[in-house]
Amino acid sequence: MPDTYLTTTIPYVNARPHIGHALELVQADVLARYHRGRGDAVRFQAGTDDNSLKNVLAAEAAGAGVREFVDRNAESFLALGGALSLTVDDFIRTSRDPRHRPGVVAFWRACAGDLYRQRYAGLYCTGCEQFYTPADLHEGRCPEHGTEPEQVSEENWFFRLSRYAAPLREAITSGRLRIEPAGRRREVLALIDGGLADFSVSRPAGRAGGWGIPVPGDPEQVIYVWFDALCNYVTALGYGRDGGTDGGAYRRWWAGPGHRVHLLGKGVLRFHAVYWPAMLLASGQPLPTAIFVHDYLTAGGRKISKSAAGADLLEPAALAAEYGTDAVRWWLLREVPRVGDADFTIERLIARADDELANGLGNLVNRVVAMIHRYRDGRIPAPAPVPPGGEDLDAAIRLAGDRAGAALAGFDFRRATAAVWAIADEANRFINRARPWDLARADGGADGGVDGGARLDAVLYLLERACSAAGRELVPFLPDAAARITRQCTPLDGRLPAPSPVFRRLAR
Ligand SMILES: [Zn+2]
Predict the structure, then answer these.
(1) Across the strands, what pairs with 222?
(2) Which of 31, 218, 432, 453 is the most buried (most CB within 10 A)?
(3) Is 259 considered catalytic here?
(4) What per-residue string of b and e applies to 121-150 under the rule 16 or more CB within 10 Å gives b?
């Protein structure tokens, strides 16, 4: 049973969270729950990137103190855990967590052989917190933000990234560092082959408003927020504390033989698949074992903007409060493709939940439990062979776990949920074919009663198996719904509980 360390990126807290943040958290939670369910030891870490210059500017724009502003927004990210039923084991806030700063300082010192100071002039996007070359820009504007970067000339510390092209390439091509999907892996290899320039890893303290972690031995400079932020994956494990890297958590989760998996969005691929592994190599640490890159969500066809009208309606906690945690998780898992952007609308959230959860799965469980009550006094019939016409459903039940597991191994959440959904889909089809109500009539009739009774038992037994399997297989994806379904399918004193809806319909 390998240990699995799962991390999400730590977002800037220059605003409250939106639905795009929920995607990565829910994906990571599914993996965490799935692995725990198989008996693997899991550590699931999330957090917030507090030390960004972007936070400073947003606080100023809001007329708030930086500390107060950052704390308030970070709090709403932390609250997503409850709203989305996340099983986060550890949540690190880079400005507040006592584990972080000493770890970053130790990391910096461990990289010292690859750090040097140099004057630099370039185009800087504060939104991205990075320098761009003119070739990176789209018509002179930041490809991420559409804003014009500012010309900056300053003296900074640089990291000798150029030295790591060959070892990075080797780690990726050998599969030691797996990057999914394959298109992203090719993108990273192309970046490496295009030549890796050294990158700046500090900023003048003045420009950062004093916010951030001072460079060890050079208090006029603060550590570049990306260097600082990336370190969170190991500082939360105790890296560099007590003057060494021998903390128990670090040794187990980062230096151990298990999996180290980062989830991230395509916009920060270069940082995670090039800068971060190079920093780890420079400081003599193991690399992550896998990086999974998701694309972006849009809302109503537009880029999700924190300031747009109605942005508060796209807050995951508000969505979960209004439509339920299950509906929000289900939309993210069922509609967002492994490759390509997805467009979120409330209408799609409602349609998906009503079609598949309320009408598909919920209706199935309700009908089956009701029939077992009506025809068998709430008692599940004894195990019986699969009745004619039930083969596809039987296969869907037997294969769901393996299919979902294989899909999750490839970070394909849509295919994984499709395997579970197939149980409900096949079961509803089977009911219409097997027509238990006709069998019940024959069961009670004068002729063929025994035969009808045995067939009805076999049909109800298979359907009950389907509902129980759906409850079991749904656990990583919709933990709350899974618990309700399992409760409906578990006899108390020999009889199933009276049928009650497991999902409410959302459409008015
Ligand atoms: Zn930008």
Answers:
(1) 203, 214
(2) 31
(3) no
(4) ebbbbbbbbbbbeeeeeeeeebeeeeeebe
In a 3-state reduction of DSSP, which class is residue 293? strand
pTM of the predicted model, to two decimals? 0.94
Catalytic residue status for 306: yes
Nearest to 375 by CA among 301, 277, 442, 295: 442
**Catalytic one of 111, 142, 467, 489:** 142
Q: Of 54, 125, 272, 467, which one is the catalytic site residue?
A: 125
Residues 6+ apart with CB under 8 A from 124: 130, 131, 132, 149, 150, 151, 152
For residue 172, give the nearest of 273, 294, 270 by alpha carbon.
Answer: 273
**Dist. CA 99–CA 114, nearest whole Å:** 24
Please state whether the peptide bond connecting residue 181 to the residue before it is cis, i.e. omega within 30 degrees of 0.
yes
Residues 6+ apart with CB under 8 A from 428: 360, 363, 364
- 489 noted as active-site residue: no
Catalytic-residue membership of 266: no
46: left (phi over 0), alpha (psi -120 to 50) or beta: beta
Is residue 92 within 8 Å of residue 232, measured between CB atoms? yes
Are 172 and 186 in contact, with CB atoms under 8 Å apart?
A: no
Give 272-323 pLDDT, tens digit per residue.
999 999 999 999 999 999 999 999 999 988 888 665 556 667 899 999 999 9
Residue 446 is predicted with a pLDDT of: 47
Q: What are the structure tokens assigned to 189, written together? A: 């290899």
pLDDT tens string 217-231: 999 999 998 999 999
Residues in contact with 356: Cβ distance below 8 Å, sequence separation at least 6, in sequence order: 330, 334, 421, 424
Distances from the Cα of 82 to the Cαs of 19, 96, 270, 320, in angstroms? 15, 21, 31, 10
CA 368 to mean position of chain CA atoms: 33
From 21, 35, 54, 294, the catalytic residue:
21
